[in-house]
Write a structure and sequence with these properties.
32 helices; Nucleotidyltransferase, domain 5; single chain; globular; 49% helix; five-stranded mixed beta barrel
Length: 756
């Protein structure tokens, strides 16, 4: 295994264009129990300042190669047990660099059920197969005479030839070179083709997959979201799907490899090759290609989801404010809760400002009274049903100007309200109160609240329920952990769900911290964490730098400076003849530090620079400053939209085919990838992100299907630029006065583009 380890390290280093020493250092740290966030932040000298992206790639590639080596060992043992392992075969197995290559080598030795070839061998037809495979000038009818044996079940020459062809077909199928050539053909020339199951064509559920009732596309070009959609349609029984290249081309490639003459004997080999491809190779490789294509599509989908989730988790927090949160509704009323600065529930009520009750005066009196009673600083309104009506009501009741009114994305709040986490937190309140609390907390600290919800319930990503769930969870856990640790966590107020994502902790230690805090009160300093049961030295090393204690006597406990470097900061202060607090508050003192004087074998300039940055802004929050966002006044529902309108919106989801935008009408609109920019866009994430505020143009409104098409282009309708000043001055009116037929033609073209 040591040989394999060295080979793996070199391979990873080459793939990532870093040194083998860096890879070795990272793997050693991971094996010792260090986390990615810890290594990225506090072990820069050891890794050469590798960031989390590269560190994660090293970890993932190393794990894949370890699994490859385990499979390699299992194959060697299996063939050795069969007493068929030769030095050449062992060398080929050890040299194999991919799982596919390994499995191709192993295929002839892989224990299998009875096959047509194995039964033919039992009938003594393998020597005949060898004679045919030599493709000499003999007569097949004469060659078979010696192999007709009624006792073995070979009664005629035709049966003998058929059995020999079965053996040859299996040889062709198990030939690594042949499999690789046809595999490459599948990837380069393979076509993904779907056809509707005729008996299901009129089903209502099938209509969402109507685009794939008759569809063809090269496998090398098909985008991940389309492949996942077609697979879902196939899984639900609405279409059938095939992936294959031209059969004629595939057989030509095989014949080029195996046919060595034009004799009659060679014709038997041709028949065997054709049978091998249709019966063995194609089904086997199509299954393999399906799996590989699905893995690639999954990886893209997970990357899209991860990118969206990171943007969402790192949304701007309002900060510690006293909040009144509203979960709007019509018939059932609007749920109202009041929260203190830490998000604790102070009061809950139901008001009825909307139809059908429309108790606006009573609702306004209650709301104004609560704002005064609890010194409310902001009002959070969920963006679901009746949200715009509720927003209009709130803004017209005469609130003090200093109270902010903010619309909050409530996706997943209902999932949280029915979860075990919510029941444990609010055992005496129903789901309506819990949902409103979640809306309010999302305003003050989106990260702390969203970690309590399964990311798949937040409404971001594409086809997340169709991808490999274990890979998805692992990828999203990495994102959440990265976000939590980049922001830092106040240990004396954090929930156990938030703490569980801190480096080195996890659910059990997070629970222990909360229980200890409840029993013994707030932690006075970071060292007090050592008193938590089962939180040992390694866990403390991993988590301490990411936990904040803002009320600690040691000001460094509120920063990202790791306790292992406190003595270094004390040395800074001692050399300058000041206190640590002075060092953190006075820039002129920090400027006097010559960091090169403090470089040692263990601590280099990267760490020293990080420490100095922390002293300047201790515990700084990397998230952007909060800004109020308002939707267009007077546009509350889809019926209010008109083609050509320019509206403000906020991006709720980014996919490979475009971005969805909330424009305040209870139905997100889609900016197709072709309308994200005036230039060609291959990856939507290049130009747009979740939570981004945009100014869009409405280009189509389909009220019956509740579909809204939007554009970010400067001229989404493709108007010809005016030639002179007089034409430019009248350009706007010309757009309005455009003949109806021309406009409809353009919209029809856009519809076709979106559907594709």
């Amino acid at each position: 295994m040591y040989y394999f380890m060295e080979k793996n390290i070199s391979k990873i280093a080459k793939a990532l264009r870093i040194t083998s020493d860096q890879v070795q250092s990272v793997i050693s740290l991971l094996i010792a129990g260090s986390t990615i966030p810890f290594i990225a932040r506090y072990r820069k000298e050891i890794t050469g300042s590798l960031d989390e992206v590269v560190l994660t790639a090293i970890r993932d590639q190393y794990h894949q190669l370890v699994e490859l080596d385990k499979r390699r060992e299992a194959i060697l043992k299996s063939i050795e047990k069969q007493e068929k392992l030769t030095p050449a075969l062992a060398s080929a197995i050890e040299a194999a660099e991919t799982l596919t290559e390994l499995e191709d080598i192993y295929l002839p030795y892989k224990p299998k059920r009875k096959t047509r070839a194995s039964m033919a061998k039992e009938k003594g037809l393998e020597p005949l197969a060898l004679l045919l495979f030599e493709q000499g000038n003999g007569d097949p009818e004469k060659l078979v005479m010696d192999f007709i044996n009624a006792e073995l079940g070979v009664n005629t020459g035709a049966e003998a030839l058929e059995g020999a062809r079965d053996i040859i077909a299996e040889w062709v199928n198990e030939n690594p070179e042949a499999r690789q050539k046809v595999r490459e053909l599948f990837w380069s020339e393979g076509i993904v083709e779907s056809s509707v199951v005729k008996s299901k064509a009129q089903d209502a559920e099938a209509q969402k997959f109507k685009d794939y009732f008759e569809w063809k596309e090269p496998i090398k070009k098909i985008p991940s979201h389309r492949l996942l959609a077609m697979r879902r349609a196939e899984k639900e029984g609405f279409v059938t799907m095939d992936i294959a290249p031209s059969e004629e081309l595939a057989i030509q490639i095989l014949e080029k490899q195996f046919i060595r003459s034009g004799s009659e004997v060679a014709q038997q080999v041709r028949l065997a090759i054709k049978d091998s491809y249709k019966r063995l190779l194609r089904p086997s490789l199509e299954t393999e290609i399906r799996v590989e294509a699905k893995l690639k599509a999954d990886a893209e989908a997970i990357q899209v989801f991860s990118s969206n989730l990171k943007k969402l988790l790192l949304s701007s927090p309002l900060g510690q404010k006293r909040v009144l949160a509203l979960d709007p509704g019509f018939r059932t009323g609007t749920k109202l809760v009041c929260l203190d600065e830490q998000g604790a529930l102070l009061f809950n009520e139901v008001i009825y400002p909307n139809e059908p009750q429309r108790e606006t005066t009573k609702a306004a009196t209650i709301l104004l009274g609560l704002c005064d009673r609890f010194k409310i600083e902001a009002i959070a309104i969920g963006n679901g049903t009746a949200s715009r009506e509720t927003e209009a009501f709130v803004k017209n009741i005469g609130l003090p100007k200093e109270i902010l009114v903010v619309m909050v994305n409530e996706s997943g709040a209902s999932v949280y309200s029915a979860s075990e986490v919510a029941r444990e937190e609010f055992p005496d309140h129903d789901i309506t109160v819990r949902g409103a609390v979640s809306i309010g907390r999302r305003l003050t600290d989106p990260l702390a609240e969203l970690v309590k919800i399964d990311p798949k319930s937040i409404g971001i990503g594409q086809y997340q329920h169709d991808v490999d769930q274990s890979r998805l969870k692992a990828g999203l856990d990495d994102v959440v952990m990265s976000c939590v640790n980049s922001v830092g966590v106040e240990v004396n107020t954090a929930s156990k769900e938030l703490l569980s994502y801190v480096s080195g902790l996890g659910p059990q230690l997070a629970k222990s911290i909360v229980e200890f805090r409840n029993q013994h009160g707030a932690f006075a300093d970071r060292q007090a964490l050592h008193r938590v049961p089962r939180l040992g030295d390694k866990a403390f090393e991993q988590c301490a730098g990411f936990l904040r204690i803002r009320e600690s006597k040691n000001p460094l406990d509120a920063s990202a400076v790791h306790p292992e470097r406190y003595n270094l900061v004390e040395k800074f202060a001692e050399d300058l003849g000041c206190t640590i607090k002075d060092l953190m508050t006075r820039a002129e003192l920090r400027k006097k530090l010559d960091l090169k004087k403090y470089v040692t074998h263990e601590v280099g300039l990267p760490t020293l620079t990080d420490i100095l940055a922390e002293l300047e802004k201790p515990g700084r929050d990397p998230r952007e400053k909060f800004e109020i966002f308002n939707f267009e006044e007077g546009v509350h529902e889809i019926n209010d939209l008109k083609v050509g309108m320019s509206l403000p919106g906020i991006v709720t989801n980014v996919t490979n085919f475009g971005a969805f935008v909330d424009i305040g009408v209870h139905q997100d609109g889609l900016i197709h990838i072709s309308h994200l920019s005036d230039r060609f866009v291959k990856d939507p994430n290049e130009v747009i992100a979740v939570q981004q505020r945009v100014k869009i143009t409405v280009i189509e409104v389909d009220i019956p299907r509740k579909r809204i098409a939007l554009s970010l282009k400067h001229d989404p309708f493709g108007n010809t630029p005016p030639a002179n000043k007089s034409e430019r001055s009248g350009a706007k009116s010309k757009l309005v006065e455009r003949p109806k037929e021309t406009m409809e033609d353009k919209l029809a073209q856009l519809r076709d583009k979106f559907r594709k």
